[in-house]
Amino acid sequence: MAAAKKAVLGPLVGAVDQGTSSTRFLVFNSKTAELLSHHQVEIKQEFPREGWVEQDPKEILQSVYECIEKTCEKLGQLNIDISNIKAIGVSNQRETTVVWDKLTGEPLYNAVAAPVSPGPSDPVAVVPSGSSVPAAGTSSVWLDLRTQSTVENLSKRIPGNNNFVKSKTGLPLSTYFSAVKLRWLLDNVRKVQRAVEEDRALFGTIDSWLIWSLTGGANGGVHCTDVTNASRTMLFNIHSLEWDKELCEFFEIPMKILPNVRSSSEIYGLMKISHSLKAGALEGVPISGCLGDQSAALVGQMCFQDGQAKNTYGTGCFLLCNTGRKCVFSEHGLLTTVAYKLGRDKPVYYALEGSVAIAGAVIRWLRDNLGIIQTSEEIEKLAKEVGTSYGCYFVPAFSGLYAPYWEPSARGIICGLTQFTNKCHIAFAALEAVCFQTREILDAMNRDCGIPLSHLQVDGGMTNNKILMQLQADILYIPVVKPSMPETTALGAAMAAGAAEGVGVWSLEPEDLSAVTMERFEPQINAEESEIRYSTWKKAVMKSVGWVTTQSSESGDPSIFCSLPLGFFIVSSMVMLIGARYISGIP
């Protein structure tokens, strides 16, 4: 029976899915795209100072090995022979920056993170300030804001009519991307400076750190990245597909520390045993796929045609639209990025990307800050009880408005309240807010591309909420399509790995791609009602703008002299009081 089961399975492909909060390893059947087994390990974020977000690269690497070993054990329990695993793909959180010592394999600092989307920052945990520089052995994650002053200084050097950074990279100058994090490390961490001087330093995003470590590390590890991750560094020319000398000079980044840029689907190296972690179940298996997480989801959703788009619903939302083999530069606040390049000799495909900063985060806010739900899953039950927001609108601009507004003065509001409004209506309004924000990104995308989307493909944890998915269809007024197999990010990495030259166990030809079962949500309201609700949302958004007028108004500075008129009033009052006492002869 076990032998028959093995014979049916055929070649398998594994995928490392490394995110900000957890690491997973998943194994797929390359012929059916069926998920056979997986294992997940939570990882910590560190907040050494307000606005600083870091992760330990060694903990991330250890979590990858643990997930691989545990998944292989589970496959053994299912009588599945792990020798059938023919390739491994890597999908990773993008922009997060690591610098390590190529001689010892030790990270020189924590991984530094990037914000949920470019522009104003997402709220981050505030902790008491620690030492000025955290201990070595961590990395800079994508939520991190420490580079704001670096960005401000760099922006002064860009001529107003010649933004060569954006024209070469498709990206705005922002704390979000890796170049400014790397610049901060070079300016502030002596260990990094010394390693660069002594030609010991290597830089990479999480994919580079993992591939280098998994293929041998200090003993012959392969230092590379793929075009999708390189395109998020702000050092990569998305037209020539090379590190750009002018950009590296602008950011003062030594090119010798950068990884080699490869396609998203080719053999980079072979898995090696980790003696220190006692891990080596997949020794000799090629690592042959690499994609940033949002590009991986685009591939996993099989958005291979111009104009196809997917939206991933997580803490925030990431909406990517395949623009084919041409770069489309947005006039509506979106980013131009590399979608994928599935082979050394295959063409590169581009995408427009828009981000919603607060999606799942608003549900957590209702749970943790207001306490109107105990678990995130309860939001669907509350919303279902009323089936309407009863005119209540929730704009979760907790740290400003993102694309397409880019308005840092905005703050969150709940408006349209009446005596009848209860927590169920607020819960419904919170779900609607996610959908309205997605529509704003989609409208911007439609204007940039010139071809309206006929449907939206979705994935991510929040898509399990059927009320949310139906609301999304109603508010977009196009069908929303959700695959029955939700692990699209890992699937995309597995597809790239299995399709690589020299592996060839996963065909990406349209006629060979497995038909995926889809759940489809059609609009259930008329177009006029959809437009009325959307225009009322826009009215609410305008009400949220202008709440923050100065930095000091939010800083909570207790000094009475932070207000100059108030200071004059108090000082003059004291002078008058003293003068009156003197004139009246009061001792």
TrEMBL record:
GO cellular component: mitochondrial outer membrane
Pfam families: FGGY_C, FGGY_N
Protein name: glycerol kinase
EC number: 2.7.1.30
Assigned keywords, A-Z: ATP-binding, Cytoplasm, Glycerol metabolism, Kinase, Membrane, Mitochondrion, Mitochondrion outer membrane, Nucleotide-binding, Transferase
InterPro entries found in the cross-reference section: ATPase_NBD, Carb_kinase_FGGY, Carb_kinase_FGGY_CS, FGGY_C, FGGY_N, GK1-3_metazoan-type, Glycerol_kin
Chief site of localization: cytoplasm
Domain Carbohydrate kinase FGGY N-terminal: 13-112, 141-300
Pathway the protein takes part in: Polyol metabolism; glycerol degradation via glycerol kinase pathway; sn-glycerol 3-phosphate from glycerol: step 1/1
GO molecular-function terms, A-Z: ATP binding; glycerol kinase activity
Every Carbohydrate kinase FGGY C-terminal domain range: 310-500
PROSITE patterns hit by this protein: FGGY_KINASES_1 (PS00933), FGGY_KINASES_2 (PS00445)
GO biological process: glycerol catabolic process; glycerol-3-phosphate biosynthetic process; triglyceride metabolic process
Location in or out of the cell: Cytoplasm; Mitochondrion outer membrane
Family: Belongs to the FGGY kinase family.
